[in-house]
Amino acid sequence: MKKNTIIIAVILTLFLVSGLAIQIRHYYDNTYASVTAYTRAPEKIPSKAQTRDDSGKVIEGSYSYQYHFKFVTKDGTTKEIEFELSGENIKPFKANQLLKAEISNIRVVNGPNEVKIADVPKTVLKKLPKNNPSN
Question: Which is nearest to 47 in space by CA: 65, 27, 25?
Fold first, then answer.
């Protein structure tokens, strides 16, 4: 009887650990696994606002610009992601500036950074709007 209880406990533990490992992998893939993508900064520069933390408290000396980007990956997939550019002496992206970033399914992992038109794949450039009027 005691041997059966131990076997059942071990099997249940293995199922629990396997399920947890699958969830961790899923979280990592959605949040941190990234691909290179390109976008264009909006024509209209967003308004500068004081940065707030997650609880809504103002962070003194820090300012933010809120962006809504439509990224295009090298394979032509598009993804819309919100991005907050923030810091003490932060400057907004220039109107219609080409940008390159590493993005995951839910966030910008690295960047966005300015990129020259010659460094953007032609297939991606065709999918990017000539100018981006909205934010």
Answer: 65
Sign of CA dihedral 61, 83, 52, 49: positive
Q: How far is CA 40 from CA 47, 72, 99, 107, 129, in A?
A: 17, 10, 6, 17, 8
Q: Dump pLDDT digits (tens) for 51-71.
A: 999 999 999 999 999 999 999
The 8-class DSSP code of residue 121 comes to -
Q: Are 115 and 100 in contact (CB under 8 A)?
A: yes
> pTM above the 0.85 mark?
no
Other C-beta atoms within 10 Å of 61: how many?
A: 10
